[in-house]
Amino acid sequence: MDLTLESGVRDLPGIGDTRARGLEKLGLATVGDLLGYYPRDYEDRRQICTIREAPEGRAVCVRAMVAESPRHSMIRKGLELTKVKAVDQWATVEITFFNQSYVKNNLIPGETYLFYGAVQGSGHRRTMTNPAFEREDRQRFTGRIMPIYPLTTGISNNLLAGLTLRCVEQCAHLLPETLPFSVRQEHNLAAVEFSAKNIHFPQSEEALDLARRRLIFEELFYLACGLALLRDRREVRPGRTFLPQPEEAFLRLLPFAPTGAQRRVMAEIAADLTSGRPMNRLVQGDVGSGKTMVAAYAAWLAAKSGVQSAMMAPTELLAQQHLETMTGFLSGAGLRVALLTGSMKAAEKRKVKAALADGSIDLVVGTHAVLSQGVDFADLGLVITDEQHRFGVEQRAQLAGKGERDGMSPHVLVMSATPIPRTLALIIYGDLDVSVIDELPPGRTPVETFLVGEDKRQRIYTFIRRQVAGGRQVYIVCPAVEESQSDGDNPILLDEANRPPKPAPGFADLKAVTAYAKELQEQVFPDLRVDFVHGKRKPKEKEAAMAAFAAGKTDILVATTVIEVGVDVPNANLILVENADRFGLSQLHQLRGRVGRGKWQSYCILLTANRNPDTRARLKVLTQTTDGFRISEEDLKLRGPGDFFGKRQHGLPQLRMADLAGDTRVLREAQDAAKQLLASDPELEQPEHRPVLERVQALFDRHGDSMN
Ligand code: ADP
Ligand code: MG
Question: Is the separation of the CB atoms in 614 and 625 below 8 Å?
Fold first, then answer.
């Protein structure tokens, strides 16, 4: 039977129900799926040697004849050995297989085979262990570059490679060319058939590079087209035009003068808001760079035009804090600011909702969850989200939908305190304009950061005591209280998909917040005021603990990463992170941002019992720089983009080929190409662009993010 791209995997030889189910687990149902399932690595099996020529310890293919019947022996339960001698004209090699008893039937004395593996020893004592092998006259996986695929139980690499080899041979020419010819020509991209063949079974390293380049480009190109389409669709609707205001009127409300960077971003926002097009802007700035004030400016501009604003924070704690900051900035101008969160009493909520509906509140601050259900606004014209990378593209669109009135889109301002590596920002926020606050307010002294081991614990406690004696306050951060991490603990970096492996028993006792706070209070600091906060505490208790700390009524606050986002207690000048190796670099940087907010020299102490050199090198980065961008780029290098925001938090389709940390150049090229194509055909309506549109739709639909 002729295979097509739509043929099911059961049409392939050797695939019955069991293997089909295994393949299904890998997302492979058809021949087309197999062709699109790319190797994660390759083995260079091109070099074929005699036994004597084989370099010691490096894997190559060795051509040799099996000289005897394989000998099989059972060492003990669960350990079987199969040994066989193989020879060529000049030398002998003794080959051992562990627990592969089937090989005794596959190795026939007198036949010549290619064995792929490393030869150990020399002279008469050459050995190989568990080599891959095949008969010289049935060569498929030796003498070439061999793909290594991600696998699952019941599906071996040889099985998968055999399947893709067949699919490549019979069906690669059936793959439709979806990239427009002009794009391929301009960017020197290989044809689709060549790319499919060479990504699976590369003819050479150069051919693999060409194939890879095309596939990466292709993926990023469709992604860029998709994001650009999303943006264009939004821009079709007009935005409310706010009235221009003299900036000085706002500056008079502030207790400080804005930095140059803040002024620049304010001007960019003012230009957006008075342009008549809906603003869609990301304000990116390191911890403490002063993003809140910029958001206040936008809300002020809205109120001056008689339009309401909503500000969303990822946690109630942060919403509470924003409320206070915003009230501080804006009440002087007569703006009415209110809070709306899930933990408020029903009656209070009703009151706030009514006031939003009749327009007597100018700015509401709340959590995402609250604002998405059943809140009516008199005239919502500006939506501000803080830390929005925790919300996906989808939710962002949903939110924007709220304020649509008379066919107009609300303005959207997104603030991100997590410095997102530029490459990733380009992709995630490809549909946003980006402003960067790249300057800290004056008078900040950089936080001194130390990486220390358990042996320093007593000295650290002494140091803590000294800070408290001087009137300061201290944070102590521990990994989450429990294994399940839902509301607020370790939300970005340590979700299920990428939490570091559990430490081996006895490795280090993880400091759990509640127990540790008790221990500190009772045994170490009986004379100091110790409190604790974590995501599992009741919101009221959480708030009370935070408020007490902010008011200086607590000396030491033991906490999970709930304090990571935005909490502002300038009097705190020391943060101690327990089990620091359990956190991502960006997250540690974020935590460090909790101190150094006042006029005192501040300290961050990273404590870990982990002596792994890689771990220490990773953490060392924090002691060497306070540049959030550099830190996040390191993080991205070490963890990979999938890990960066946790599983699919960014709401983007999963990329199969593109490695965001490394592919900046191709990314730029792909974005330019997408821009150019859309300039000539904004809705991709021309027949020759049909394939592009289909691929874009498929890419986004797979993720449930509709393009229509
Ligand atoms: P983030 O960007 O992390 O949200 P915030 O907006 O919370 O930063 O600002 C951090 C602190 O710096 C706040 O206490 C804020 O009042 C203060 N701040 C902001 N801008 C300035 C400025 N231009 N000069 C002095 N202090 C400022
Ligand atoms: Mg902030």
Answer: no
CA of 288 to the centre of ligand 1 (A): 5
Atom of ligand 1 nearest to the CA of 325: 16
3-state secondary structure 398-434: HHHHHCCECCEECEEEEEECCCCCHHHHHHHCCCCEE
> What is the pTM (predicted TM-score) of this model?
0.60
What are the two backbone dihedrals, phi and then psi, of residue 561, each rounded to the nearest 5 degrees? -70, 5
Copy the structure tokens of residue 579.
Answer: 């089990």
What's the 412 CA to ligand 2 centre distance in angstroms? 17
Q: Is 259 in the pocket of ligand 1 (CB under 6 A)?
A: yes
Instruction: Please name which of 588, 406, 561, 596 lies closest in space to residue 490, comparing C-alpha atoms.
Output: 561
E runs forming strands in 229-379:
280-285, 308-313, 337-340, 363-367
Residue 618 has a CB neighbour count (10 Å cut-off) of 19
Rounded CA-CA distance 573/567 in Å is: 13
Q: Considering only CA atoms, which residue is closest to atom 17 of ligand 1?
A: 290
- Neighbouring residues of the ion ligand 2, judged by CB less than 5 Å: 566
Q: Residue 284: CB within 6 Å of ligand 1?
A: no
pLDDT for 603-633, tens place per residue?
Answer: 999 999 988 888 898 899 999 988 877 787 7
Banded pLDDT at 506 (limits 50, 70, 90): very low
Cα(445)–Cα(193) distance, integer angstroms: 58
Q: Which residues of 55-67 are buried (b: 16+ CB within 10 A; e: fewer)?
A: eeeebbbbbbbbe
- Closest to 365 in 3D by CA, of 418, 327, 417, 392: 327
The tokens of 143 are what? 């003498």
pLDDT at 649 over 50: no
What does the pLDDT look like over 292-333, one tens digit per residue?
Answer: 999 999 999 999 999 999 998 877 777 888 999 999 999 999
Q: Rounded distance, CA 464 to CA 450, Å?
A: 14
Eight-state DSSP code of residue 653: P
Q: What is the largest CA-CA distance in the chain?
A: 96
- What are the residue ranges of helices labelled H in 26-156? 31-35, 103-106
- Which ranges in 364-405 belong to alpha helices (H)? 368-372, 393-402
Ligand at shortest distance from the CA of 291: 1
Residue 173 is given by DSSP the state: G
- H or E element at residue 533: strand 530-533
Tokens of 627: 């540049």
Give every CB contact of residue 469 below 8 A, 6+ residues apart in sequence. Answer: none
SS3 310: strand
The β-bridge relationship of strands 530-533 and 556-559 is: parallel
Residue 446 has a CB neighbour count (10 Å cut-off) of 11
The tokens for 550 are: 């902010």
Ligand (nearest to CA of 571): 1
pLDDT digit string (tens) for 222-281?
888 887 776 666 556 778 899 999 999 999 999 999 999 999 999 999 999 999 888 888
User: How much is the pLDDT for 424?
Assistant: 61
Residue to probe by mutation, ligand 1, list 251, 293, 435, 592, most atoms within 8 Å of CB: 293
Q: Hey, whose CA ends up nearest to atom 20 of ligand 1?
A: 290
> Which residues neighbour 628 within 8 Å (Cβ) at sequence distance 6 or greater?
286, 287, 418, 419, 586, 589
**Helix intervals (H) in 554-650:** 585-592, 613-624, 628-639, 641-644
* Torsion angle (degrees, nearest 10) of CA 653, 648, 420, 266: 80
Exposure of 270 in the CB half-sphere (CA atoms within 13 A):
17
